[in-house]
Amino acid sequence: MNTPTLLTVDRLVLGATAVATQVVSGVSLTLRRGERIGIVGESGSGKSMLMRAVIGLLPAGISKLGGIVRFEDRDMGDLQPEELRKLRGKGIGLIFQEPMTSLNPALTIGRQLEEGLALHTAMDAAERRIAILAMLRRVGIADPDAAVRAFPHEFSGGMRQRIMIASVMLLEPALLIADEPTTALDAVVQREVLELLHALVEEKGTAMVLISHDMAMVAQYTDRVLVMQKGVCVEEGATSELLRAPRHDYTRKLLSALPRRAPARSVVPRAPLASVRNMKLAYGSGSSAKAVLHGIDLDIHPGEIVALVGGSGSGKTTLGRIIAGLLQPNEGTLTFRGQAVNRKSGAYADYRANCQMVFQDPYSSLDPRMRVREIVAAPLRHEKSMLSTARRDRVIEVLSEVGLGPQFADRFPHQLSGGQRQRVAIARALARRPDLVIADEAVSALDMTVKAQILKLLSQLQEQQGFACLFISHDLGVVEQIADRVVVMHGGVIEEQGSRDDIFDRPTSSYTKKLLSAVPMLTPAAGGGIDLVWRAA
Amino acid sequence: MLRFILSRMGMAVPTVFLVAVVVFFLIRLVPGDPAALLLGDMASPESVAALRSDLGLDKNILAQFAIWLTNVFQGDLGTSITTKEPVAHLVIERFKVSAGIVLVAVALASLVAVPAGFIAALRQNSKLDLTLVSVAALLLSIPTFWLGLVILLIFGLKLGWLPVVGYVSVAEDPSRGLLYVLMPILTLFLHEIGVLVRMARASALEVLRLDYITHARAKGLPERTVLWRHVFPNAFAPTLTLIGLVLGNMLGGIAVVETVFTIPGLGRLLVDAIFGRDYPVIQGCLLFIAVIYVLVNLIVDLCYPLFDPRVKIT
Amino acid sequence: MKTLSANAMVGGLFVGAFVIAACIGSVWTPYDPMALDMKARLAGPSIQHLLGADEFGRDVLSRLMLGASASGIVSLATVAIATVLGTALGSISGYLGGWTDRVLVAVTNALLAFPGILLALGLLAIFGANKYGIVLALGIAYTPSVARIVRGTVLSLREREFIDASRVSGDSEMYTLLRHILPNCLAPLTVLSTSMFGWTLLSESALSFLGLGVPPPAPTWGNMLAAARPYLAQAAWLAIFPGLCISIVLLGINLLGDALRDRLDPKMRGMQ
Question: What pTM was computed for the model?
């Protein structure tokens, strides 16, 4: 441990001066050369702001109110703007979360990679080009010569994030700050990009601060972890120890919020509740048609939770929307309790009453101009025989089922937290006591601890009310916790399906194996924490 | 590249066609016999009857439209009731006068306002920004016809530097002609600065909050480079569209400025035609200005790929 | 965030003053705005005539007050017509999609291809140059702008999940449109109507200035300016005061519009 200190942050305080609130209240940390640390926290913990302050790029409205940041034995507060600029890029590199907006759409990749080198090194144009091509090849860009002439929009999100990494690592900074570098990417791509980042950092001996909400990811790639909550660092320690034996309550809460497998339930085999046969859908028409579903067969049995998993573009959401009646397929049938469902059939009203949906984004799934009471009561409008007093009682009843007291009935969505909103969305779905609930990425947009609560609520309600649930998700960890049965989709076809334990423990398809390699298995550790085991791809 | 140009031009065709439909039916909506309207009150019954058959008024409305459209395509916009001149000739002559004033005013205003708007955005909420935004709001709120009168009062009457009434073509006598267009140009220039500063500032603010600007700064680039290499190209494309709109809107609203400074431009031609119920001229002006507006927007569209590579040119 | 911005305060002050002047002007003015008084012809501002008198000796202040109420009513009626028509067309176009949408968009684009007040000028040629002609012409001319913005809002609202939620619960398309989509269009519509009030006021003055608006002797700010043009050298105040009134009210509306936009609809910032 005698490597020199690279970065010291001493009792840093950041705040929004206009409204006199602190976003970071007295956080300290030290980082040695080549060390890799993780900063974990939920939204609003101040983790991103902390590192933005280090590089001196705080957003407008937020400023440093106290504390010292020392980088390579220099007080960053004393630096002239000119000196600070020389440090950026060369001394400290920064990688962002959103690869779609972090590259300039109007400049070629080559020019964007070159400008840092031109600024910070003495290389001439030919040397710069050699360095750029080598780095692009290193980050896994197939044709670097073509890539330097291409524009960012010609690459996928994963590729752009690789280019972003190349852009930052070209300058060989002493410190790399990676702010949720893979959150916007598909699970499989996430793992690949992180492995690349890790390998590069290792090669160059770069110190890294990995900012993430994902405890499992941080555990895999860092030596030390800081846990932040509401602007304060609540716990710090060696990653492996902190994971196994957390000391602070909040850390324990975070760790227990990581999804883990529940015991398998025995489901009595019964006739399918809903069946999909030979479902096909293509967007567009003629030669430009893009097939999304290539003939899907799927059964959903009463009282089971079926998880539909796959990456983006797998067709899982499209299938869910067809089953919910939001999209018309080109071909194929949907039957519910043995009767064909289509808009003209008499069974449609019954199907509408029995199939409800919970959406991904609780900020967009509730009408901002309606009160919670009206939102939850909206589906009851179609229960013609129901008296208005019975409707009112039902609203209070389902709200209490989802853990919201009657005082919430008169609030507007903007007065609720993300978790509370999602509870309202679940209450709305359950108001008519449906037999089938489609949950489309219903917990994906939520913070870790909230996600765990909503997941628990959903499985409790399912247990009590016995509805079948089609649980659509890209997050295998969540699926492992909640599903009875798993259906893996890839490129518009079903790759593999089976009981949860079969799919997670004995996958046969290589795509499933690849998906599984991106999520760790959790087992309880003696210290009250967890052990993580990664599956081989 | 050629395909891109052709496809964009193809997209403008239906708009131009619909514009023609609107202009054609506008006159048919006026109560009365179109032939009598087009010839004016003084026309003899024989000439009305002749025009009736020329316009195909005995045929159905679609045939009438086809005849009219064919004439338009051959450059025949009819004959003015009041001056008996061919409308096409009249419109072109007057357009030359208006176009010169508008183009110079927009070009000058863009040169001043676009950089000012970008700088204001870069220093958002600073004193400079506040000043620029306030000045822009003020300029935007002053109607051009009043601004024109005030300028006329100051430079023409109080200071006596510039002629108050009359017009001399710049082409005929450049030095004297210039004196007559200075005040209208100044009026439009000041007004458009108000519009453009706000728009340029808004486009730049949009760009400034994106990650790649922070990324450029995180690379250590100086603010100057960030502004010119990263903000400017991305903020300029939307600004260009807005300049196109401004150019067109000016043509539509130039009548008031031409009235203030007694300049025989296209706007004044249209207004006089409305006064004189000179329907062929009204039709010609409406059609011509709308087509110019579509063309300006088309040119802007065609320039777009130069600034935004995301717009595919194949 | 409950504090009023400087924009809202200054804007509210100017617009409030306009509304009060217009209200008073419709029931009481210091002098009869139409009364000729050749003794006071082109009299400068004085105790008797605070803002002077015009070429027929009519009191300028009285005429400005009556003009304010005339302009206010014309603008309100125009905004009402454009908003109702535009909202109906825009929401139908955006929500139904398909061929209805394509036809309506094509027509909207064709009408929007007439820049500025040009379409209004064309329509005035049909309706005739008077108060009702102006209201109709400007109302129709602004309808496409409203329709376009409403359509855009409807399209983006359609992507929101609460619209899917309404459909999943079995609501009909019409019910979803009326209950969920239109109420959520209110914010952008408020912003737009405010700006439109300003555009109308400006266009009405411009048309009156050209002699195509409300015909004399009824006063509007625009035709007062037009009448002042020949007397610019002798009686500059005749041109100064009406123009100042228009500018102040427009500035007020622009500032108020900006404040509303910032509060209700941050996405529309900087658009015209």
Answer: 0.82
